[in-house]
Amino acid sequence: MAHHEHEWTCGSVNRKGVAKYIHLIRGPYDPEKSPRVKVGEPGSDPTAEWRRKLKTSSAKDWEPIVLELLADGCPRTLNEIGITLLDRTADNLRALPPDEALWNLVERCELEHTMEAPIYFRTKGSTQKPRGKAGQDRPTATRAPSPAPSPGPYARELAEALGQDEAEAFALGRWEAAKIPFWVEVYAVLIEKAKL
């Protein structure tokens, strides 16, 4: 079976209506996030304090962090970027500074993206393709579920951006939205509408 060739583009992007959600769709080979921490256990965040703190940073703060992650030229979805940097899925990051940073970099043509879902991002000029089936995988940072995961490679940068220590910054990455199945259904409907 021939490998699907993606069309890549950069510059100004229409992100109105359904288009503002399409980039949230996970790729078939995206890593899994860490298991959800139960309320009351260390690292739980039932009030989504992580989100409020993340909103105090800016897209400009996140641009160098995103560029550093994508500097290897490997295409990644927002979902994979979010899991790697914050242990957060794309639906949790929509319209937050890391998401805005991606689109700022695309608009300035420092990054390019694919034109169909799942949307992949890569550095401008890279020739690497999104990873495919077994045997075609590219090296990537992933989070393997473990009872005691450690802070990711960008915890120090995140901590500095948010003015916290690394343990606090990592704890931010441990919360998961309880309504993930609802969002999966919403994305499926949006994809169907986009095909019409």
Structure described in brief:
The chain is 40% helix and 5% strand. It has 196 residues and is mainly α. It has one domain.
Walk me through what this model shows.
A hairpin with a 6-residue loop joins strand 2 and strand 3. The chain has one domain. It has a three-stranded antiparallel beta sheet with strand order 1-2-3, covered by helices on one side. It has 196 residues and is mainly alpha-helical. About 19% of the residues have low confidence. The longest helix has 16 residues. It contains nine helices and three strands. The chain is 40% helix and 5% strand.
Number of domains: 1
Shape: globular
| Rounded average pLDDT | 74
Q: What spatial order of strands do you see in the largest sheet?
A: 1-2-3
Strand content: under 5%
Distance between the termini: 26 Å
Name its key features.
globular, single chain, 40% helix, 196 residues, three-stranded antiparallel sheet, mainly alpha
Summarize the helices and strands and which ones pair or pack:
Elements: E1 8-9, H1 19-22, H2 49-55, H3 59-70, H4 78-86, H5 90-93, H6 97-107, E2 111-114, E3 121-123, H7 155-162, H8 166-172, H9 180-195
Antiparallel strand pairs: 1-2, 2-3
Helix pairs in contact: 3-6, 7-8
